[in-house]
Structures are given as structure tokens and as C-alpha cells.
Specification:
This protein has 331 residues and is of the alpha/beta class. It is built from 15 helices and eleven strands.
């Protein structure tokens, strides 16, 4: 009996390192690697937000879940990334909600022209019950809405002349995102909308295929559009939130605990993105001014708002209209 015990002890001692190694391997096998696509370059505030998200997912999962960030449209343009996320080919993407609204039209209610009184109003809406409802509404189209990112306000820029009044835009060919609302918005101002993917805009401006486009300071700067379209007119027609969306296919494969880790990391990375946005936007404005761009304020924003007012009737469903009322009522 004693002999048997000694043999068993020796065997178990001999096997211990093997088991430990086996466990280690099993842990490594469990590492989950997920991909996140962004069409903006490294250093851009959304990519800084994405990287924070990846860092937090790794931290909260003790290194078990890794998110690889693919910036600069390396996994495809914005629309194609949304499609890939929808069928599960890419796990996450950070996008503007303008093109996302083609997949979930209710999102138009969050990006109507001159909807928010100021950034504070927008954040109260997005980080409150209304914003939560819209994140959840993404599930019907195969996504899980995770969090909102800042994207400032969009204004027009062009290669021809400063814009002061709505009449100045008459007949101009303006590139828009692949979005019905943005098409309608440009039409409402008497200009001709040309939907086009972001990566094609620089050469279209340069060759005169289009006269102008519209975007926030950071995009006007980082896309280098300011080099070829030097008139930037601050009308701030829309504040278009951006969103990190996950593929529902990916999320459904994860445990409840891992889904919660991802949701929490997304909520917690937002503050970093908002700070990065504010820093970058200031620097971009300074940079394009220093580069000789001609920048003017639009003094009569009310004229622009009035021209776009019919879109609230035309572009929104009854449900969308009801949400707009709720958004406006947020103090
Ligand atoms: C930027 C946004 C991009 C893309 C781009 C565009 O502000 O960050 O995701 O939507 O605008 O105009 O296509």
C-alpha cells in the first residue's frame, strides 16, 4: 500500500508540469481576436477612441479578448464595412450614422439639421434613455449599437467661393455621404448632391467633378480636402453622431459575460474620444487657417434652418417625428 502511494505521488509530481502547460495552452486557445474597422487615419480622434476601446476590452477580460483596430479604410469604405459587420465578416466598425441610416432609417431622427441646441444638448440625448433606445434599435438590422462618438458639426466647403446665403449654393455640385437625408438636405438648399465614398472626394474636388463637400474640421483637415477646396463656410447644418457597432453574429457567439465586457468597454472609451475630438478639432481649425483657407461664419443660420425645415416632414417616419419631439424637449 505504501509502495502504491509512493508510486502515485511520483506519477502526480511528474505530471504536474505537463498539466500546468496544458492548462496554459487551453487558456491561450481561448483568446478571442476580434476586428474593428475605421475609415479614418491613425491619430484621428475616432481611431484614438477605437484604440481605447480595444485597450479596455483587453483589460476587462484579463487579456482574453483582443480587438485589432484597422484604420484608414483598410477593410473597405464605410458602407462596405457596415455591410461586412451586418453579415459577420467584420466584428466592429466605427461609422458616421449618416450611411448607417440606410440600414436603420430611424437613425435620421438623431441627425436632423439644426436639431441640437448645442453639444451639451446632444450628449444629454445620446447618453440618456433616447440614445439607449437608438443603440438597441440597431438589433433589428443585425447590429449591436455600442456607443456614440463625437463628430462636431458639419459645414460646407468648396473650390469656388465663400458661401454666405442659401442662394450662394444654387446649382453647386456637392458631394454627400451615401445617405438619403444628406441628399435631401443639399437639394433643399438648391444645390446638386453627389453621393460618393469618402476616399474618392479629394480627386473629385481636384478634377472638378464636384464643386464642394461638407464635413467637420478634423475631416476637412485629415482628408487634405482643405488643400483643394479652400472656402470653408461655417453654417454647422448638422451634428451627426458616430457609433461603434458590433456584428450581432459576433456578439451572439460570445458568452453573456464577454458581451457585457464589450458593452462596458465601449461606454468607458467614450470620454477619451470626446477629449481627443475637442483637442484635434482646435488644432485642425488652426492648421487650415494657417494654410490660407478662406473661412467665413454664416451669420444668418436661421435662413439655412428654414430652407431645411421641410426635411422634418419629408424624411422622417411618424415614429421618427415623435422621437424628434422628445429630443427637442430634452433640457
Ligand atoms: C467623417 C466621418 C467618416 C465619414 C466621412 C464622410 O466625418 O468620420 O466616418 O462618414 O465624414 O463624409 O464620408
Amino acid at each position: 500500500m505504501k509502495k502504491l502511494l509512493t508510486v502515485l505521488l511520483l506519477v502526480s509530481v511528474a505530471l504536474t508540469p505537463m498539466f500546468a502547460q496544458g492548462e496554459q495552452e487551453a487558456k491561450e486557445d481561448e483568446t478571442i481576436v476580434l476586428r474593428l474597422a475605421d475609415n479614418q487615419p491613425i491619430g484621428y480622434p475616432t481611431v484614438i477612441g477605437d484604440e481605447k476601446f480595444a485597450e479596455l476590452v483587453e483589460e476587462y477580460s484579463n487579456g482574453r479578448i483582443k480587438v485589432e483596430v484597422y484604420p484608414q479604410a483598410t477593410l473597405g469604405d464605410e458602407k462596405s464595412c457596415i455591410e461586412q459587420v451586418q453579415f459577420g465578416g467584420i466584428d466592429f466598425t466605427r461609422v458616421s450614422i449618416s450611411p448607417l441610416a440606410s440600414f436603420n432609417p430611424l437613425l435620421n431622427a438623431l441627425q436632423m439639421p439644426y436639431l441640437y441646441r448645442n453639444p451639451d444638448h446632444m450628449w444629454k440625448v445620446l447618453n440618456g434613455e433616447i440614445g439607449d433606445y437608438f443603440l438597441e434599435s440597431m438589433e433589428d438590422s443585425g447590429f449591436v449599437g455600442l456607443t456614440y462618438f463625437d463628430s462636431g458639426a458639419r459645414s460646407f466647403y468648396n473650390t469656388k467661393k465663400p458661401i454666405y446665403t442659401v442662394a450662394d449654393l444654387a446649382g453647386m455640385k456637392i458631394r454627400v455621404q451615401e445617405s438619403d437625408l444628406m441628399m435631401g438636405l443639399v437639394e433643399a438648399l438648391g444645390a446638386a448632391p453627389t453621393p460618393m465614398s469618402y476616399g474618392d472626394v479629394y480627386s473629385a474636388l481636384q478634377t472638378g467633378v464636384i464643386d464642394g463637400a461638407e464635413n467637420n474640421w478634423p475631416s476637412y483637415d485629415s482628408s487634405n480636402h482643405y488643400e483643394v477646396a479652400k472656402y470653408y463656410s461655417i453654417d454647422q447644418h448638422t451634428r451627426v453622431p458616430e457609433m461603434i457597432i458590433a456584428s450581432k453574429t459576433t456578439m451572439d457567439k460570445l458568452s453573456q459575460e464577454d458581451q457585457e465586457i464589450i458593452k462596458k468597454a465601449a461606454r468607458d472609451c467614450q470620454a477619451t474620444q470626446i477629449q481627443a475630438w475637442s483637442d484635434y478639432a482646435k488644432k485642425s481649425e488652426e492648421k487650415v487657417r494657417a494654410a490660407g483657407c478662406q473661412i467665413n461664419e454664416i451669420t444668418d443660420q436661421a435662413e439655412f434652418a428654414a430652407a431645411m425645415e421641410p426635411l422634418y416632414e419629408k424624411m422622417l417616419s411618424d415614429e421618427g417625428k415623435a422621437w424628434v419631439e422628445k429630443i427637442k424637449a430634452v433640457k
